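Workshop exercise sheet. Pairs work together: one partner reads the sequence aloud, the other fills in the structure field after running the prediction. Swap roles for the next sheet.
Pair: D.N. / O.F.
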Amino acid sequence: MKRIFLFPIVSLLLVTGIVAVLVASNLYTFYRLTDEAPIAELRFTATGPQEYLATIYYGDFCTPQQYALYGDQWRLDAQFLKWRPWANLFGFDSMYRIERLGGRYLDIRHENNGRKSGYQLYSSGLADLTAILAKYNGRFSPVDTVYGSSVYTEMDPGYVYVVYRGQSGLLVRKTPQAGVAATDGIITIEINKSCPGDPGLSGRITQFMQRAAGRADSQP
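Structure field:
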């Protein structure tokens, strides 16, 4: 009798746990959105007429990825997830996920007939539970809206393009690229970016002990 009584409870807890893991794993691909901040940096090298090699930094900004783009402009797409006000009270801030990088032509005829390029920038191995949540519009749904935002501008090897995210979507700013030199028509870009590796568990424990010892020494 006791086993028969416990079986539905254990099954319910198991199903609830599986759903929680799926939701957490899916939302892990999103980043919390509070105020305006950079989310990606792009640089370009011309490889031919309307052909470019794009180098993009995003995420931890320490692992560059390169893609061949065709056209006159680049475009970056992101998906935004906005929670309802009552969900914000539980710590759910608006979130975003970088989704796609592609090329774009100025001339619509080239856009229709030219060579295309597009790349997905997130893992699609997880169930897209955000789309499932967005389809439910009931009063108890924590999701206010899910929408896409894009930015696009020219591909100029002489500039660094930084994409920012804000509460309303994406925006891009460009700055002249430092360390750009041209030799015989070939543009050389020097990237000096220092990204320390993960110290690991033992390293984090050591850093914590060092900080604790420093605080103890500073006390009278």
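Discussion prompt: Confidence is low (pLDDT under 50) at residues 180-193, 199-210, 212-220. What would you look at next?
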